[in-house]
Design brief:
The complex is a heterodimer of chains A (159) and B (428). Chain A is α+β, with helices and mostly antiparallel strands and 159 residues long. In chain A, 20% of the residues lie in helices and 40% in strands. Chain A is built from three helices and six strands, in the order ααββαββββ. Chain A has a six-stranded mixed beta sheet. Chain B is an alpha+beta fold. Chain B folds into two domains: 42-153, Rieske [2Fe-2S] iron-sulphur domain (Rieske Iron-sulfur Protein), CATH 2.102.10.10; 188-417, Naphthalene 1,2-dioxygenase Alpha Subunit, Chain A, domain 1. Chain B contains eleven helices and 21 strands. In chain B, strands 13, 14, 15, 16, 17, 18, 19 and 20 form an eight-stranded antiparallel beta sheet that branches. The chains are: A alpha+beta (159), B alpha+beta (428).
Chain lengths: 159, 428
């Protein structure tokens, strides 16, 4: 059964809400046991993980630890926490591929901290799997539309 | 403030202070551009980045837009990316392969060696206008290579690269020797910026003292994966002044993270162990046990004056940076890896690299934060004027948690910026 756009969109909106309210462990729980979270280099957006140096190359353990880390007061880049706003649009779902449903969307994330606001535009490629009544993320790849992390300087939030 | 007073280097009282105007002053940045970045050898790139004839990269080095090319005879060139006609950059792409660069403005065209090839309406200029390279792209004054690392210098009278590198050359060789078939830059750059003075990143890049307070969350991560125990006290290693402002902080076999070709950690899984052991064995056989141990099991943070860092740690990164303003720098970093390493080994390397390094790793963002906090703090420089870098001045065996590496940098910096060759570069 094809996943409807509105169901996919509801799920992505729920994910965005968890991130913007800093419920990061709940965000990590959205991933499957073999889930991964990826961000390619800004100068090699089509690059393959394991061949190209990505900015983020998280397996399931590391993305959970990323979430845990960001909640610590010693994660200095996010202490105090930034305020973020994740905007999702142009959601497209495709046919199941061996049980994983490809979903793509556009995103813009605003991050404000210490009186500075940075904008992270891009598109995301998801592989979702059905889990009972709900959905889980098998893979999330966020591809940025910037040539360099300037003026951002870092990706200390989750896109 | 006199330039001579920017640094207090009191060897009797073991006191080393840097005046904070060095981080905020436009006048000092102008002097740095003239006396440091226009005089020193600066990292351009690696030979492996241009694999085939016609390959090119456009890159800013020391604030200047350059074209780095490989010609049809396999010779490398560093050209100023500016048309001899009206000055427009003749190449807008980051990289690619081509035989000619055509300026978008009036279509003057140059080959990959920078030689003039043609222009529309050539007859309006005298017949000899293009003789003797008069309308070629201008070559950078100096370009030299050492073991695959390519540097440029904007001062035609500079000493050779090899002489400039002094003791740092040996440490670049440890990197160059990792791969049996040579080394290459992996595709995918880390291009970011820091809202702080550029010298703060050179200080930070070999600062063992900040490891635990700034990066405790990284150590939490590797503990959660590998059950690795880490204590600064038994990981102090040593620091060396390598001459000409270069320094290294170093230890062998003491640090808790994995090294992709030589130090297995449980998080990589049992399958990886046999391959890592085999890689280690290959290095030991090829280089001998003593040198092999340094190359394979050593962790090094190498500072090459003024703005090159080679951190050979949980992966090997090459990092360079340049001030756009006193309070803002642009940073570019790359991963260097052995040519021909297996897919699983390359994959481990790239995973390992970004567990710590880079603008989305578990550590670099916190460094960026600390450097920016320093810079914000310098708004108080009029009343709180000095940084203190005195750690280890009384020690005969300075460790990574001391500050000899920073003093080595600052002594060379002070010599150049104040134009006073009499200032002593050696010292505690």
């Amino acid at each position: 059964m094809k996943l409807s756009r509105s169901d996919a969109e509801d799920f992505l909106i729920q994910e965005a809400a968890l991130l913007d309210s800093w419920k990061l462990m709940e965000w990590a729980d959205l991933f499957t046991e073999d889930g991964e979270y990826l961000v390619p280099a800004t100068d090699d957006p089509e690059g393959k993980a394991g061949k190209s140096l990505f900015l983020i190359y998280d397996d399931r353990h590391r993305l959970g630890e990323r979430a845990k880390r960001l909640l610590k007061p010693t994660a200095h880049a996010e202490a105090p926490h930034s305020r973020t706003r994740h905007m999702i649009s142009n959601v497209v779902t495709r046919e199941d591929d061996n049980g994983a449903i490809p979903v793509t969307c556009n995103f813009v994330v605003f991050r404000s901290r210490m009186e500075v606001t940075n904008i992270y535009p891009g598109h995301a490629e998801y592989l979702l799997v059905r889990n009972g009544d709900g959905l889980r993320i098998k893979s999330k790849k966020a591809v940025l539309d910037v040539d360099a992390l300037r003026p951002h300087g870092k990706i200390s939030i989750i896109l | 403030m006199q330039l001579s007073d920017l640094i207090i280097d009191d060897r009797h009282q073991a006191r080393f202070k840097v005046h904070r105007s060095a981080f905020v002053s436009d006048e000092i940045l102008a002097l740095e551009r003239e006396r440091v970045f226009s005089k020193c050898w600066l990292y351009l790139g690696h030979t492996s980045e241009l694999k085939k004839p016609g390959d090119f990269i456009s890159r800013r080095v020391g604030g200047r837009p350059l074209l780095y090319t490989r010609d049809r005879g396999n010779k490398l060139h560093a050209l100023y990316n500016t048309c001899p006609h009206r000055g427009a950059m003749v190449c807008r792409e980051r990289s690619g392969n081509r035989r000619a660069f055509t300026c978008g403005y009036h279509a003057w065209t140059f080959d990959e060696k920078g030689s003039f090839v043609g222009m529309p309406g050539r007859e309006a200029l005298p017949p000899d206008a293009t003789d003797d390279g008069k309308l070629d792209l201008v070559h950078v004054e100096r370009m030299e290579e050492f073991r695959g690392f390519v540097f440029v210098c904007y001062d035609k009278n500079a000493v050779s690269l090899r002489e400039y590198l002094a003791g740092a050359a040996e440490y670049l060789e440890y990197v160059a020797d990792q791969g049996r078939d040579g080394m290459e830059i992996v595709v995918g750059s880390q291009d970011y910026c820091v809202g702080a003075n550029w010298k703060l990143l050179q200080e930070n890049s070999a600062d063992g003292y900040h490891g635990v307070p700034t990066h405790s969350t990284y150590f939490d991560y590797i503990r959660s994966r590998d059950n690795a125990q880490f204590s600064t006290m038994n990981s102090r290693g040593w620091v060396k002044n390598l001459g000409n402002g270069h320094a290294v902080s170093e230890s062998i076999g003491l640090l808790p993270w994995g090294r992709p070709y030589a130090r297995w950690v449980p998080g990589w899984g049992e399958d990886a162990k046999a391959e890592v052991d085999a890689l280690n064995k290959e290095i030991m056989e090829r280089l001998g046990p003593e040198r092999g141990n340094v190359v394979a099991n050593g962790d090094r943070n190498l500072l090459i004056f003024p703005n090159l860092v080679v951190n050979d740690v949980m992966a090997t990164t090459i990092r360079t940076f340049y001030p756009v303003r006193p309070d803002h720098m642009e940073v570019s970093a790359w991963c260097i890896a052995p040519i021909g390493e297996s897919d699983p080994s390359r994959d481990r390397r790239l995973r390992n690299f970004v567990e710590f390094l880079g603008p989305a790793g578990f550590a670099t963002p916190d460094d960026v934060e600390m450097l920016e906090l320093c810079q914000r703090g310098y708004a108080n420089a009029a009343s709180a004027p000095y940084n203190d870098l005195s750690r280890g001045m009384l020690s005969n065996v300075p460790t990574k948690t001391d500050e000899l590496q920073m003093r080595t940098f600052w002594r060379r910096w002070h010599q150049l910026v104040s134009n006073n060759p009499a200032l002593e570069l050696a010292g505690p």
